[in-house]
Amino acid sequence: MTSRSLVVVAFGGNAFQSKGDRGAAEDYWRNAYIAAEAVAKLVNEGYRVAVTHGNGPQVGVIAEWMMLGWRLKGTPPMTLDIAGAMTQGWLGYILQQAIYNKLREKGLIPGKVRGVVTIITQTLVEPNDPSFKNPTKYIGLWYEKGEAEKLSKEFGWVFKPDPRGGYRRVVPSPDPVAHVEIEAIKRLIDEGFIVICSGGGGIPVIEDRNMLRGVEAVIDKDLAAERAASALHADILLILTDVDYAYLNYGKPDAKPLKRLTLSEAIKYYNEGHFASGSMGPKVLAAIRFIQNGGKLAIIAHLTKALEALKGESGTWIVPDTT
Amino acid sequence: MTSRSLVVVAFGGNAFQSKGDRGAAEDYWRNAYIAAEAVAKLVNEGYRVAVTHGNGPQVGVIAEWMMLGWRLKGTPPMTLDIAGAMTQGWLGYILQQAIYNKLREKGLIPGKVRGVVTIITQTLVEPNDPSFKNPTKYIGLWYEKGEAEKLSKEFGWVFKPDPRGGYRRVVPSPDPVAHVEIEAIKRLIDEGFIVICSGGGGIPVIEDRNMLRGVEAVIDKDLAAERAASALHADILLILTDVDYAYLNYGKPDAKPLKRLTLSEAIKYYNEGHFASGSMGPKVLAAIRFIQNGGKLAIIAHLTKALEALKGESGTWIVPDTT
């Protein structure tokens, strides 16, 4: 890698909330500064950086707020695409200010970086994505059966029994295709900005008679990060989470951290079901796709070990077969 | 004006809500398409466009949601700067998609415009702005005195009796100084994008020991639009609202629409108190400042008459004295 390599960093939920946090504003800031420290270290080493992040808990909070407003005050709830846009503003702002302050503290702004900006990002999905026929992502509050049926009639929502009891709304999680705003994102990166984009996997939109239209769905943020990284011809996709490595037999006595995988090995382990769907699974799948689409290096590592991961001292490296 | 003049358009509340709307998502979309039509007409005439917008009702809705979540579920409320960031995502997304679709429908994208993007925007204010000592902007729910005192202790909020009864939180409305992200905004405009920025007047931040820090305040969106228009060296500041003109003696039998004002005339009428604070007042003040800072033309006009206003067929024109 050259010192000006472009790294797309995908932050997980721990960039905003740690275990035991009650989710207050000060918790968001404290965690965001840890994430910002990771970005600052990469910038200090000369890397160019674009940032994506998850939004699962925050979409849940907004869904809960909206439902309380509807029940108690009759305030109409916004749709899920709009709720996703709200989280992009919420989390983008916090990250953008934290990263800016960290870079300024370290003398990297002005200087190596021209500024830090958040772009509200729409992610195109296929209208015939199979997930639309089989929604599986739980979102928002738990309801009694009667109220679930009422809400289903009122808003057209789909409910399923939750394994933890009660009924919860389920929504589709379609595969991301492309980001509508990718050209603006690319230009700002080229001009020296750190760009925060594709927040929460992006706002899901479909093309409908030559028009964009938001849909009630959620997008996996790591799969969306891959779409951005590939479209930007990034050198590295760096997925930061709360474990040091992807593991074989994770959680079992013979669990084995994976330090370096070729593309073929990653595909083999993925197909063997070593990586849990909804957590490590999509991260490994995003890494596989990034390498398949021409990327040189994908890494899954702990939030606090971003630089060590780039140096090969921590994290799971996934590399092309020919390396 | 040349055909490539840059117009900064400031949308008022009616770009998202019309009289009688209950504030449902479909109301937002319907109104946003009317606003998008105005933008499309300007683009079709060859103007370059940047867009700002208000967020008063939406910050109120989010403040209400957060308070319900706190009361009923113990979910910590976010601070007002974060709530403002949420509205930038919410309204930016809706405007960005509506404008994109309108431009595409008219064959202006791809073509005259490269894309439509929303930049999450922080607005710098002075830490010693006098409004911090005398907060006056009502926000959120109405409370009984006892609960207001409880919330005041819990969150440090300031409450005042509302003329309509009960107690409401009041927050400062400091004067905007500059937008932190103005350089990124400028570059995207220069490269052919329509940029939505400074939503709700921007997220208020102060400089505190060389770091940015969000503050609990709201910023007048027209005064902030002037800061953007002046920094971008825009040719025209176009403030769109729900009346056709600024008036002398507004609402009285001898009310007189103002069609063309020199800077000196505008200042005279402003100082005489012809324009209501909190509605027409800041619009005229924004226009005055824009001309004082070198702008050539500021217009206050109705949302549906944007193009007529630029042609001089509607709206109040404010021009330099030397014109």
List key phrases describing it:
homodimer, 323 residues, alpha/beta, Carbamate kinase, eight-stranded mixed sheet, four-stranded mixed sheet, 17 strands, 24% strand, globular
Tell me what the structure shows.
The structure is a homodimer of 323-residue chains. By secondary structure, the first copy, chain A, is α/β, with parallel strands linked by helices. Chain A contains 9 helices and 17 strands. In chain A, the strands form 4 sheets. Chain A has an 8-stranded mixed sheet, sandwiched between helices. In chain A, strand 13 and strand 14 form a beta hairpin. In chain A, helix 1 packs across helix 3. The longest helix of chain A is centred in the first third of the chain and has 26 residues. The radius of gyration of chain A is 20 Å and the shape is globular. The model of chain A has no long low-confidence stretch (mean pLDDT 94). At the A-B interface, helix 2, helix 3, strand 3, helix 5 and strand 11 of A face helix 2, helix 3, strand 3, helix 5 and strand 11 of B.
Distance between termini of chain A? Answer: 13 Å
> Which structural class best describes the helix and strand composition of chain A?
alpha/beta
* Apparent shape of chain A: globular
Within CATH, the superfamily of chain A carries the name: Acetylglutamate kinase-like
Unreliable stretches of chain A:
none
- Write the CATH fold name of chain A: Carbamate kinase
Beta strand % of chain A = 15-25%
Number of strands of chain A: 17
CATH class of chain A: Alpha Beta
